[in-house]
Amino acid sequence: MTRNPSRAGAVLAFAFALLAPAAARGQEDGSRISEATQACLFCHENLHPGLVADWRLSRHARTTMAEALAVDEPARRVSTPGVPEELRDVVVGCAECHTHAPDTHPDTVEHGEARVHPVVTPRDCALCHPREVDEYGQNLMAHAYENLLGNDLFSDLADRINGVESWTDGALAPRTPHAATTDDSCLACHGTDVQVVRRETRDTGLGEMEFPVLTGWPNVGVGRVNPDGSRGSCSACHTRHEFSIAMARKPYTCAQCHKGPDVPAFKVWEVSKHGNIYAARGEGWDFEAVPWRPGRHFSAPTCATCHISRLVNDWDMTLAERTHRMNDRLDTRLFGLPYAHPHPKDPRTSTIRNRAGMPLPTELTGEPVATALIGADERAARRNAMQAVCLSCHSRSWIGGHFDRLDHSIATTNESTRTATAILLDAWRQGVATGPANGGSPFDETLERMWVDHWLMYANSTRFASAMMGADYGVFADGRYALAANLRRMQTLVRLDGGRR
Amino acid sequence: MTRNPSRAGAVLAFAFALLAPAAARGQEDGSRISEATQACLFCHENLHPGLVADWRLSRHARTTMAEALAVDEPARRVSTPGVPEELRDVVVGCAECHTHAPDTHPDTVEHGEARVHPVVTPRDCALCHPREVDEYGQNLMAHAYENLLGNDLFSDLADRINGVESWTDGALAPRTPHAATTDDSCLACHGTDVQVVRRETRDTGLGEMEFPVLTGWPNVGVGRVNPDGSRGSCSACHTRHEFSIAMARKPYTCAQCHKGPDVPAFKVWEVSKHGNIYAARGEGWDFEAVPWRPGRHFSAPTCATCHISRLVNDWDMTLAERTHRMNDRLDTRLFGLPYAHPHPKDPRTSTIRNRAGMPLPTELTGEPVATALIGADERAARRNAMQAVCLSCHSRSWIGGHFDRLDHSIATTNESTRTATAILLDAWRQGVATGPANGGSPFDETLERMWVDHWLMYANSTRFASAMMGADYGVFADGRYALAANLRRMQTLVRLDGGRR
Amino acid sequence: MTRNPSRAGAVLAFAFALLAPAAARGQEDGSRISEATQACLFCHENLHPGLVADWRLSRHARTTMAEALAVDEPARRVSTPGVPEELRDVVVGCAECHTHAPDTHPDTVEHGEARVHPVVTPRDCALCHPREVDEYGQNLMAHAYENLLGNDLFSDLADRINGVESWTDGALAPRTPHAATTDDSCLACHGTDVQVVRRETRDTGLGEMEFPVLTGWPNVGVGRVNPDGSRGSCSACHTRHEFSIAMARKPYTCAQCHKGPDVPAFKVWEVSKHGNIYAARGEGWDFEAVPWRPGRHFSAPTCATCHISRLVNDWDMTLAERTHRMNDRLDTRLFGLPYAHPHPKDPRTSTIRNRAGMPLPTELTGEPVATALIGADERAARRNAMQAVCLSCHSRSWIGGHFDRLDHSIATTNESTRTATAILLDAWRQGVATGPANGGSPFDETLERMWVDHWLMYANSTRFASAMMGADYGVFADGRYALAANLRRMQTLVRLDGGRR
């Protein structure tokens, strides 16, 4: 038994490459692969067979930019008007992305005859997909790192979650979390701060080579701060190295970050009629087609259908425009904050302040900070854009009743959070808990955590259930049942704790 | 970018219809589509392409009743002996259902040249499927609306969940829930009360048209109260507009309402050997076949296999009869009530009273209200009917051992609920909590909610795990681990709260 | 309607067998099925059509041992050098397993002309697969029964979970669980103790027959104690009667026992990039191929890929050896115990004692019991074996960063458990709870249960999330959010309860 086959593999890679089976290397027409990419493949196909195999499955591996540009709307998949001449007639391979504009990438290293950067960023992708990158940059998700850690309040919550407290003299003592914990926790989805710390030389079996040492690596979070200063990671959804549109359109991609109790979108959708139809009948649907036609290519929406994809009918009339600004069809921000509220105008939310000076888009009473949020017209336009998708399969009466119920659910869950907040404020006033006014964190006591559960879990879950008709998540599965019980538990704790004092 | 494409679409629909691609309209032989349905399709195929595409995929769209009636048992899919002459030679399209017996449907409106009702009900379906509709009407689910809201106790629980309490003078004050909340919460699965409030005229882009305004709409709950007085919604399981038997037989359909912590049937099955086989190998199974043959069409049961479907062996011997009375193979009602108990005789359960006068099928000690529940012979017959399904793949020893364990689990979980109830009764007696005898709701204090968790979540979960061999749901996932911990928590709260008083 | 069709079926089976459709019986070349197996099939194909159909789908049903032995490495699927002559030229049918070495099986009964044992054990499988059975026997899972019930501490926890307490004189009184409860609970996964109690004669419809009456039956737990003294059940993963390698390689098989909150491995993987790729793109992958080639046969790993399967590249170089000792590629045991620690040397763990004399592989401070655990060299070798799998698709920088983060997560979750343990020890010292030093169980009070939740649920979940990049399980879904909140809750309870005393 070979305990360390990988090293042996690396050492032998060069030799074996010469003997590589034609079948494994000849899937694409080699003449369309650039020489630079062929040089990459020569070693890496042996070192990382799975990685290269994924790329060989991709549309990138079998399409030149000339071909991509020759496709007319609405079927075109690239948004650039053109690319440099040297990229026109080669497929999009390793070198086309990993050696693009090397001087703009602080992680660039000399690697064989190439100057390679490991961290491919949205700026690289923008060479062919500039519109998508631009839209994505206007997205809340693109700024998920700063929106979390640049917000004093949320940053405090993150620290209270990630810092491992000690038990010292009969009391819990807070500790600042290590960066590795936060990278592994919140920033796994929000995106890490990837910076080049230094370069190091490693013996690779193919000789000594230089590699960058990066903070926050690996990571494919949606708001990743890249070494080149750009934000986000396209491969968060368009998974390396197939970059498949089909995969991005399937719900599992979103579920990576939108399945937990704080944002149970996937789970809610899964038990909705839409999720049911997808699970039972989705096998034969066409997830590759551009443009995407309801009824013809699929029978029920996934996340992408309602939020992102361009939909057209059989007469090529546009039902919904493609957008990578994910809230273009969303009038209300349902989750992540104490109260649901109109979407912020600017995707950089950490600068918002309410009247009390807190970095929140609502007051603690739920009243929106109107100046920072979209107004009635924009809200109506966004809702209308969403309902245009619904109309593919539903009547106006059905849609109207559904959205009325959603609005009602937003109002009542906000009301429930208002009650929970009132209990907390009373407890702070009475000294049963220690709030900011008395120098305490709002997140480090049991009662305070119950309050966070209230809005971050239960109210969110209930609203998602209303938005997507995933019934149980609005009742017993962290829904209204939990909201009602949590108010009682908060009252009980205040009573017990108050009695003690 | 067109922000409001749907309206433009509606306006242009008529014009475009004339140019409709043959491919989109010619999937079925138009000559078998009734003229009335063709009139529907003329506009609606453009207005709601996904809706119509679903129907085009359906067996309804490609089968006339004459053809359906020509099929001999056991392969026949309709249970009527015959239908009116004018329906014999057309496929089952829009008009055949939505304009059937218009005078019996209070939601009927004049719509073009037709009298259309939007809410198709089981009575419409009974034209071709009378036996299924009849059986379904004898089903607990068909009466899920009244069984919940017509029961004072359960209705109080629903109100305590759905009513958003306020924090007034340092205490939680109850509020009656809005109908929209209950519709969106409990009634999403149980079914809403759909009534015609009024009619309204809307400008549709194809001119002014009249539409009914309905309460509780949209909804596809299993016990929906329809405008025509009928109960239930066949499309709860046979999803509009494909009405696929395959989809109804797949477990995701049941999971829409049977996945939450109160009834984790799907999740339990999913981690059972049966669920594992389905997930790993089910791709090639035949979910369309009637009759359904174990071993030939599938290798492991879904929900429908054990509870509903007609199963025959290769010699056409019936292993299990088809039934839409879902508890025909169930001797014990495992969930939803404080104690597991023999199934009620009558599916309308809100009239049951125990000796204490409570609307429950057991005493608070767990003793069944025998007069209202099926007796030993019927229980044996039902268990036998279920075991006949098991025998398709399992020996009698295996089955015997399995059911012994289930019976034991029913007994011990009931015992655990008895202990939880004893704690609650003691607390009520001692004034640590306020029970009905002192004018309190049994559902509005933390201790009372713990008691509800005990039976509605943990005892149910444990029994489901025993019934379907989904191990973890009987231990750590809301199973015996939770049951044991919850008793401790109840004791702790009584002690803390008692000490305070 | 036939309420009892199964009995009628049994009575008629003999008659119908004579008329059996050729199609149902002729899928395999009958001449290669042994006469003994043909005798089994003659009745059982009618009695249990699903069971036999599964076998007919199997590789066993269409392969003779001569054929299996003729396959060269690395494609060979059997590990024996040879089998008895009479087994060489028949396929592996009912009789080949169920009548093998009857005298070694206490559950053997006379059955028609055969001596049949219902409980097929790893010893039977070892006739053709001796290496796999040997490796599996060195596996923690093979000893899961004794490792649980032979360990006083864990056995006490099991009893506290499974014994249904009564409410007697205002206090909870413990009760010893019934064996049937423990069989249905912990032992569903760990494996039951299957012993022959007696034999009984039953009227089968084909005449009176003798059957063994077994304890703990049915069961397919991984550490099942079999009547022949062997340990385990190969069909826990290689589900009867298809025994498919594809099914064992799919993640649902592992999920049967590794999905609950105590070991959410499946759920974590499911939201990882790996799980996402599998869900979105796995349909066309080849799960039957031996050997298994990354990139060619699949694009992302399932459980088996990383932990069990033999992986080779296109030049037949071995990337990872096949192993049925599941921790061969695992340096650290992440779950099930208060602290993560190096894997034990011996899979029989109930004999380990820490300095305090407790049957644990660490002290209560987390310090490992070094003598019982693997050392640094073995740990490095195992980690290297795992990383060789990672290298199929990832660079060394990526892998290095990932494992650094995992190590950090192991350290911080252990630290959090150390804090929880300090709170508990303080509570025991102060008499707020009653610990072992004062004659109490460490598992029968609310505070103690919180402590168990800490390591058995939240710390485990966080570590799994780090190990497989399933982000939310490291934060809001029973991750660091729960760890931090639980410490607070423990402190609150100690304060409230301490104040009361």
Give a short synopsis of this structure.
3 copies of one chain form a homotrimer. By secondary structure, chain A is mostly helical.
3D structure, described in words:
Three copies of one chain form a homotrimer. Chain A is mainly α and 501 residues long. Chain A has a domain at 259-499: Hydroxylamine Oxidoreductase, Chain A, domain 2 (Up-down Bundle). Helix content of chain A is 44%, strand content 7%. Chain A is built from 22 helices and ten strands. A two-stranded antiparallel ribbon of chain A has the order 1-2. Chain A has a two-stranded antiparallel sheet with strand order 3-4. A two-stranded antiparallel sheet of chain A has the order 5-6. In chain A, a hairpin with a 5-residue loop joins β7 (311-312) and β8 (318-320). In chain A, α3 crosses α4 (49-56). The termini of chain A are far apart. The model of chain A is unreliable at 1-27 (pLDDT under 50). At the A-B interface, α17, β8, α19, α20 and α22 of A face α1, α4, α11, α12 and α13 of B.
